[in-house]
Design a protein that fits this description.
With 188 residues, the chain is an alpha+beta fold. Helices cover 26% and strands 32% of the residues. Strands 1-7-6-5-4-3-2 form a seven-stranded antiparallel β-sheet. A hairpin with a 2-residue loop joins β6 and β7. The longest helix is centred in the last third of the chain and has 29 residues. It is globular.
């Protein structure tokens, strides 16, 4: 199963709200996984796996000599998007509660361009995994698009949130496949 077909059968949930960037819009995508939380945790806390699950994230690397996640740890992520180009960001782990919560703030942890979070909950003999993200309040690449077309801000935000939702669904589908079946089942 590759990232390209990971969203087959999943319907989009993000609806038009007229949200602006300053509203701090959020999106959350859940998936139930037939595996214990510890197995799922091993996958979501392995940032090196994430480029294999995301159509946008190209590579990640721990900074400051780190080899794994911890509260306050930093990592750089390199991304690519057809309309936005290529960029790199530095993320800061802001919540690390194994095996329940792994969250990071992008760029400035006090005024992040976005915050991302995985939450795990033991449920029905498996794991309910939720991936959540919030845009802003700090500036991001999206801010520059809005600066160029302020009259289209709500549409720009809506389209980007839909993209995040789609990509998050693809990520969760790959994590589910790996957790339930093994690492060899997802193409690199």
């Amino acid at each position: 199963m590759g990232v390209g077909d990971a969203m087959a059968g999943r319907s989009l949930v993000v609806e038009w709200t007229g949200a602006r960037y300053a509203d701090g819009p959020t999106v959350e995508v859940p998936v139930w996984i037939d595996a214990p939380p510890q197995r799922v945790w091993e996958l979501v806390s392995d940032i090196a796996l994430m480029p294999r699950t995301s159509p946008e994230l190209q590579s990640v690397e721990w900074l400051d000599g780190r080899r794994g996640p911890a509260l306050g740890a930093r990592f750089v992520g390199r991304s690519s998007h057809e309309a936005l180009g290529e960029w790199a960001t530095t993320s800061h782990v802001v919540r690390y509660e194994p095996p329940r919560v792994f969250a990071w703030a992008v760029e400035d942890p006090e005024l992040p361009s976005s915050v991302w979070r995985f939450e795990l909950e033991e449920r029905d003999g498996g794991t309910l995994l939720r991936e959540w993200m919030q845009l802003g309040p700090g500036r991001s690449g999206l801010s520059y698009a809005i600066d160029r077309m302020p009259d289209k801000e709500q549409k720009i935000v809506f389209v980007r949130m839909r993209e995040f939702e789609t990509n998050m669904g693809a990520t969760l589908d790959v994590i589910k496949k790996l957790a339930e079946g093994g690492r060899d089942e997802v193409e690199a």
